[in-house]
Amino acid sequence: MKAVRLHDALDLRVEEVEPPPPPPPGYVNLKVRAAGICGSDLHNFRTGQWISRRPSTAGHEFCGEIIAVGAGVTELMVGDYVSADSRVWCGACAACLSGRPHICEKLGFVGEVCDGGFAEKTQLPAKLVVRHDRALAPRVAAMAEPLAVSLHAVRRLALPAGEPVLVIGCGTIGGLSALLLSRLHDGPLLLADLNASRLALVEDVTGGHRVALEQASISAALGDRRLRYALDATGSGQAIRAGLDLLAGGGAFALVGISHGRIDLDPNLLVEREIGLLGCHAFNEELPEAVSLLPTLAPSLERLCDPIATVDDIPDTYRKLLDGGASKLKSIVELG
C-alpha cells in the first residue's frame, strides 16, 4: 500500500509499504478515508524537532473505517466509521493519573511515535478512535482532531457572556476557534490575519469583524467597550506582543500557536492589568464533543477545506503550504 513517510527534516516520501498486521489486543486496524495536513506536521517536516523514529508514516488528523479489531475491543466493531485521536499518552505518570493525559510526561503523537494517517491503512489503539455519524463526508470527519484543539483553547479562555474576543491568526486552529466562538459565544468576534483572502473567508463563514492589531482599529470596532480576551493561533512573537498591548485589565490571552522563537515580555504588564496568559496544548477530553459538533458545523467546515487530489500530492502540498500557498484553512486528501 502507499504511505507518506517522514525520513528526516525536509525528507518526505511516498513509498510502497506493507499493510499493518492483524491488530494485537486493544488495537484496531483502519482503512483511512481522509487525512489532513496540520501546522505541526509542517513544523516537524521543516525542523525535524519531533522526529522520534525514522521513517514514520505522517499524519494525525484523519478518519477511517474499522476493518479489524483486536482481542478485548468490545465497544467498536468492523464497519464503524471513526475519527482519530492524535495523542499517545502513558497512563501512568502524575499528569495522566490526575486526568491530564494531554500534558503526559511521555506524551507523543500519532504520525511520530507510531504510524499515522497518510496511508491507505493504519493501526491504532482502540482508545484513540471515536465513532462518528456515518453520514459525514470524510473530509469533515477528518477535522475532528483540530476542532478538538480549538475547542480546548476556547474553553481555556473561559469567556464571560457578552465579552468581545479577538482571534489572531485565521489558519486552521484560529479559524476553527473563530467558528466555535461564532456558535458558542454571544460577544463580538474580532479577527486579525495578514493573509487577506484567508481572513475574508473566515470573516464570511463566522460573521466576525476584521481588525488590525492596533488600538485605533479595535476602538473603531468596539466603540466604548474594552477588549479583555484574545486567542493567538500564530505563535508569532510580534503578534503576541501586539495582542497583549491591546488587552485591557481583568481578562486572559490564550496561546495555541506553535512559536519559533522567544518574546521579550515585561511581567508587570500581566501583573498590573491582571491578565491571565494561558498555554493551550492539544486537547484533553474535548474530542468526543468535537465529533458531536461535526454534523452541525459540516456546511461551514466544507467551505474551509482545500482538497488534495491524491496521496502522491502530499509532499508537494507540504512545500506549497510552507511557501504560503494555502487557499483555504485545511488541506485534506480523501482516500475513499
How far apart the termini lie comes to: 14 Å
Which quaternary structure do these chains form? single chain
The level of helicity is 25-40%
Number of helices: 11
Query: What is the averaged pLDDT score?
Result: 96
Report the principal-axis shape.
globular
How much is the radius of gyration in Å? 20 Å
What portion of residues belong to β-strands? 15-25%
Number of strands: 18
- Low-pLDDT stretches are none
* Helix-strand makeup class: alpha/beta
- Characterize the largest beta sheet: strand count, sense, and whether it forms a barrel: 7 strands, mixed
SSE ordering: EEEHEEEEHEEEHHEHEHEHEHEHEHEHE
Describe this structure in words.
- 32% of the residues lie in helices and 24% in strands.
- The protein is built from 11 helices and 18 strands.
- Strands 3, 5, 6, 9, 10, 17 and 18 form a 7-stranded mixed beta sheet that branches. A 6-stranded parallel beta sheet has the order 13-12-11-14-15-16, sandwiched between helices.
- It is globular, with a radius of gyration of 20 Å.
Main attributes of the structure:
32% helix, 336 residues, six-stranded parallel beta sheet, globular
Q: What's the gist of this structure?
A:
The chain has 336 residues and is of the alpha/beta class. The protein contains eleven helices and 18 strands. It has helices spanning 39-47, 94-97, 138-141, 144-157, 172-184, 196-206, 215-222, 237-246, 267-273, 287-304, 314-322; strands at 2-8, 11-16, 27-36, 56-57, 61-69, 81-84, 87-88, 108-109, 121-125, 129-131, 165-168, 189-192, 209-210, 229-232, 252-255, 276-279, 305-308, 330-334.
